[in-house]
Records
---
Amino acid sequence: MQSDIAILPFAHGTGPTLTRIRARHEQQLRQVFIGLASICHVRQGKKRLQWGHRQLLCGQDVLVLLAAGTQVNVANLPKGGEYAADMVSLPPALVERFRLHYPGQGVQAREASAVSSVKQEADTLRAWRHLQDCIREEAAVELQCQAAEGLLLALSLRGAIGGLLRERGDAISHHIEQHLLMLAPEERSLERVAEAFHCSVSTLRRRLAREQTGFRELLDKVQLGLALDQLQASSLPIADIASACGYDSPSRFAMRFRQHYGISPSELRQTLA
């Protein structure tokens, strides 16, 4: 059946993002939402991921590949009193551009697991380091995107692209999740999203209801994911993070965070000390 909402291409010009996570005590997090295709490398300690009935334990010798839209339970396990990992998230436009440049690469991704790991070899290690350097040194966005495509190409040449190129299908909720991740907090309103997808608010609500979800649920999932990133990778006060991620009060944010992840923001911060 033809959709009654036009699915628009996402804005170009947004580059990959790098999140650096450190902890001194074990972290246990449930229902962690990976909104964008992401690549993770553990530099110290180990990471355990569980999704469905599957589990992956990984260390420093691999890159972990996570498909967009994946939800996983995560354990970050320090070694020698420290856990450290780097995660690069790839915007939808970059992934789509790579599919267009290298037709057919997405076919194997369609059948791949949502979470996988690949041993680091010379080409992938070189491409990974180059991408991190471009992001850290704030190179032009075009250069950052080119470096990210270089890493995707190195992975695909090894037949190890995993689910990074997986297309999430026609579900409008999937497209809205990724769209919300690209927006500033003040732009994440039902009205603004409906306008971006060239439909009325009532039409958008109706489509989401067909998929047994709603705009508030999608927004909450995205906001909690962004808050988790900031709690782990920055020293901003919890109240500031709550406000920046769209929550009216720190207490409501703390309650919702604990309900979702099984740990409060302050407890999570204590694992970083």
Note: DSSP finds eleven helices and nine strands in the chain.
---
Amino acid sequence: MEIMTLLAQYVRTKWLARRFSTREQLEKWQDRQVKALLNRILPVSPFYLKRMGALSKAEWRKLAPIDKKLMMEHFDELNTRRIAKEEAFRLALQAENTRDFTPQLKGVTVGLSSGTSGNRGLFLVGPKEQAKWAGTIMAKMLPGPLWSEQRIAFFLRANSNLYTAVDRRRIQFAFFDLQNSLAEHVERLNRYQPTVLVAPASMLRMLATAKQQGALRVSPIKVISVAEVLDPLDQAYIQDSFAQLVHQVYQCTEGLLAVTCEHGTLHVNEDIVVMEKEYLDEQKERFFPILTDFSRETQPIIRYRLNDILTERRTPCPCGSVFMALEAIEGRSDDLFWFRHGHENEERWISIFPDFIRRAVMVASAKIEEYTVRQLGAEQVEVALLVNGQHSEQEVQEEVRQSLAAVIRSYGAVVPAIHFVPYQPHSGAKKLRRVERVFAFDEQKGRD
């Protein structure tokens, strides 16, 4: 670990947060950072050198966006350390099977990400980038100053050298493997007594239940949700159980994208990434982000189109930051629900954002404790509800059916068959998706 790099990044992150008073200042500074990055990586990344073509570095925003498929297809010539994709996959899969995440390739940390969409991806992080990541996350998310004593409990599907980089003398780090049982986690947490609890929303929900039942006896001073969409229903439940605001870290294979401020507002980390917006609606609220991360050099991320659906916050945050604020991370474009148009003489399809499906369930009844909604096909939706035991499940199901039908009908779409199945508790080993489309849909062809 490059401790001086970590400390320098910690100080820099704290300073940059206060440096910019206008968006114009920030954007000019970002532009300089990206051009400096291009100067460093173009000589060692054949993929980006060819992609730039005749464009000057000042025209970097004119680059056609790439996606995960293209990045993985050109992985060998995209990364700057000449690391072969097959070799990286072999090491990452070996780590998954042995649960030993310490091996590196050429001094580079290799990680495997399934992503919310289920498509496998690789990420590479060099030692200097690892130290910078640690400095950034500590500056943005640690409660108290760097020299305060903290015990961090980190729940993830897979550990990484990236995460253990924050393990310093006064800052202890403990990895909790999501594949282990809840009983094991509760026993170990009671012994560890974390001051910071970091976990996917589904695991935080299970721990919150254990706390309410008296089995979990911890009182962290900060609770952070990662890796999954934080549903408002889960957020309220977790906050009530721990008597703490639930913070979020929005991170994926493509980078550390956003974290919450002290007011709970999710701000894009515009001190390390440029987030351009490809709007999805006429109101210009929802968008796909196009990312350029000027902190990544081993695996450069330049104009990378992510298929997460984000909603921009319109009202200023009380913290006063000029960094872009997000209202919500709705999910993947893969989770847009598609229904046939209601007009029998018109053969077209209607899309509905996951957030509208989510809200339809939540407003239907206050008696719902947990839920999932899965679109199995254009004419079939499956709903699972966990209803407070004091209330009639059939009544709540009918309320949800009517609420979902009303939303779908309001878009002019044909209401599908909506059937109910028993709710299955989430195991924690896989990402929880409360709203999910599970059939393939080709928007261009207009059929499933």
Note: The chain has a mean pLDDT of 86.
